[in-house]
Amino acid sequence: MPSTEAYLMLSGTLFAVGLIGVIIRRNMITVLMAIELMLNAVNVNLVAFSYNLSSLDGQVFTIFVITVAAGEAAVGLAIIIQLYRLKSTVNVDEARELNG
Amino acid sequence: MTPALIVFFTIGTIAVASSILVIGMRNPVHSALFLLLTFLCVAVLFVMKSAEFVAAVQVLVYAGGIMVLFLFVVMLINVRHLPDERVLSRFAKGGFLVGAAVFVLFATVIRPGVYHDPVNNEQALRTTYRTFHRHGKLIRRATVVGNSEAVGMALYRDYLVPFEVASIFLLVAMIGAIVIGKRELSALEEETAPDFILEKVETEKEVKEAMSA
Fold it and tell me: B39, B54, B169: which to substitute to probe chain A, counting the most A Cβ within 10 Å?
């Protein structure tokens, strides 16, 4: 059975990849996908510790995280559609009205 | 090298590689498909840590729901990708730096040999507890059931209030998504909106009138 350390390393790698994706990509849809990637890395961590501590709390929290991810994806994609209607692009660099 | 370790390394390598491809692909549809692959690999990792119910929820909600949502939005907005268009943002160098720093931070925090996995503790993740009074004494009795039933009992009994809050959250998110995604232009927006949006709204009005007539 792979150890908890292995799971933590994997989850850290997934999280770092997601973070890099959030910062470097210009396409807003891909940025949202990278955020989902980061949430999934957190889920891997929670499940690994749930097994390590022999407690179901981690799995319950994972279900809550999945709920939040679903709501976030729905609202985020609605915002992307509205941004596309307004500026006919999904480029995050183009949406800088608050830049002053 | 036990079979479980071989499966872990294979699936983990596929998960990391496809996650890198998610942020590396130019076309959002390809990114979405690699994201699906990552989700399925993570579901396999959940099963290996005896979290079968969470793995099923992961496949149903992520692979079934969120991915369809992503693909529908990509289809709706229909972004054309020119081959010479830039993919990376202005902060690309800093982004790689921050990601590498966070990874190094995580790697140094993990101390090998600190986390001792209990032997044969799958039982604990499949056990639910029942408390009742008998002869004035509080008795706690453990029953071994399936993982789904144990998670369900924990969710509906110990975490009932967070569960209700999550349902309110989903309702609010649904209403918010509908309100944000609705296409309705006010008088001010009609002055500032680009021409193609006005044209679209006009055509929709015409279609509606033709349908009702």
Answer: B54
**Distance of alpha carbon B36 from the chain centroid:** 10
Domains and CATH numbers, chain B: 1-80 (1.20.120.1200), 185-213 (no CATH)
| pLDDT greater at residue B189 or residue B65 | B65
**A80, part of any domain:** yes
Q: Please give the residue range of the domain that contains residue A61.
A: 4-92
For residue B173, list chain A residues with Cβ-Cβ distance below 8 A.
70-72, 74-75
Q: Examine residue A71 and state whether it is found in any structural domain, yes or no.
A: yes
Kindly state the helix (H) or strand (E) to which residue B130 belongs, with its residue range: strand B127-134
**Model ipTM value:** 0.93
**pLDDT, tens only, B42-53:** 999 999 988 999
8 A C-beta contact, residue A29 and residue B22: no
The total number of structural domains that make up chain A: 1
Q: CA nearest A82: which of B19, B60, B180?
A: B180
